[in-house]
Amino acid sequence: MYDDAAADRLVTAAADGEDRAVEAALRPRDLDEFIGQERVREQLSLVLQAARRRGASPDHVLLSGPPGLGKTTLSMIIAAEMGAPIRITSGPAIQHAGDLAAILSSLTEGEILFLDEIHRLSRPAEEMLYMAMEDFRVDVIVGKGPGATAIPLELPPFTLVGATTRAGLLPPPLRDRFGFTGHMEFYAPEELERVIHRSARLLAVEIDPKGAAEIARRSRGTPRIANRLLRRVRDYAQVRHDGLVTPEIADAALAVYEVDPRGLDRLDRAVLHALLKLFGGGPVGLSTLAVAVGEEAETVEEVAEPFLVREGLLARTPRGRIATAAAWAHLGLTPPPQAGGLAVPQQAELFTPPEA
Question: What residue spans carry the region label Large ATPase domain (RuvB-L) (predicted)?
Answer without folding.
Answer: 7-187
